[in-house]
Design goal:
elongated; 0% strand
Length: 269
Amino acid sequence: MRSATSTSVIPMHARPRIQNLPMDVLPHGGVRFAITHVLLPLLGFALALLAMRWSGGDQWLADRLYALQGGEWALRDAFVTQTLIHRFGRYAGIALWIGVVVAWLVARRRVEWAPLRAPLAYLAVAVALSVLCVAWVKSWSNMDCPWDLTRYGGLRPFVGLWDVRPLGLQRGACFPAGHAGGGYAWLSLYFFLGAVRPRWRWAGLTTGIGLGLLFGIAQQLRGAHFASHDLASAAICWTVAVATWQVFRPAMVRSRRLAAGTRAQGTQA
């Protein structure tokens, strides 16, 4: 006879198979993460920026882009670079960010979207903070655009980031690259997809890099920025994406577990 205190045993086929579903977000934290996602990328950005500064790489590249356009910035007002990529690209980025916010608001109201709440909140915050941080640095860095310099048909001498700006010289507002920053802000897709669809996280990283390169190269062709301006924007955006991920990661793990439980319940039903 079965004891009154004995517990019933749930058949194995009736148990949710949550243990077979991904329960964590990618990438994982720890020392390896600190090395591969923080130390190495930021060291790479720093070395690249120093190399551009010491070797004159900015001017070398800008000289060739300027010469290819006949000794002027012929693409400054071109439809593709100025209207399509610069203006409409900015509008598209804003619209995409608004779409993320709307999706987050929907996720807060729909139970079946609950696993997306934290990842969508992360993406919205990380993109916004990236753009704002680039704009903040740009507000005090006081560097000129290539098209402002006498070397490229402008009226101002070149003044480096750490150089003392001559008195009376109008302030510059071109470092880091704001438009490229609007593209690199989507590097945070890497972490968003790490929580939602881990296998797609590299596609997210590629998307962020691709948008940043597209916007950045277009602006270089217009004479609006040097290459180092784009590198600085990428470094800022990646730093913001990582720092914001550290804050949101616990909530993302909970969302991942909720997603695993939801799928398991659906399989059981």
